[in-house]
Amino acid sequence: MDRVNEGQWTHIGDPTFDAYLNGELERALTIAGSTGVRVVVATVPYSRGGEKPDGRLYPEDQPDRVNLWNTMLRKTVSHHPNVAILDLNKKLCPDGVYTAKVDGIKVRSDGVHLTPEGVKWLTPWLEESLR
């Protein structure tokens, strides 16, 4: 999603904003793991919140931006041995693109949030992943 940072509109993919995001992520992981506990973060899944009137995706739904964030997340996590990643993107988008259905189950109805059926389907995976 586009953001105002230091008075300017920007987004992931802009080197200055990427440095800011990476710094914030580094700080958050350092603080969360400061007592030595295991920290788990999740990748961001592709989403489809809606389309512009011309049919194009809104910036926050563009796969390239999701990929940039998930790459940054993985790189930053690699410096923190007590931090693990749950690949939520791979779980919800197994073919590498947005989908509303996985394993025959409608997991998202609005393009972003899980349906009750999606929660029921995802919960065992989450529980097992967090053990």
From TrEMBL:
Domain spans labelled SGNH: 59-125
Keyword Ribonucleoprotein: no
Molecular function GO labels: acyltransferase activity
Protein name: Putative acyltransferase 3
Organism this protein belongs to: Mycobacterium intracellulare 1956
Keyword Acyltransferase: yes
Superkingdom of this protein's organism: Bacteria
Keywords: Acyltransferase, Transferase
Family annotation (InterPro entries): SGNH, SGNH_hydro_sf
Pfam family, one: SGNH
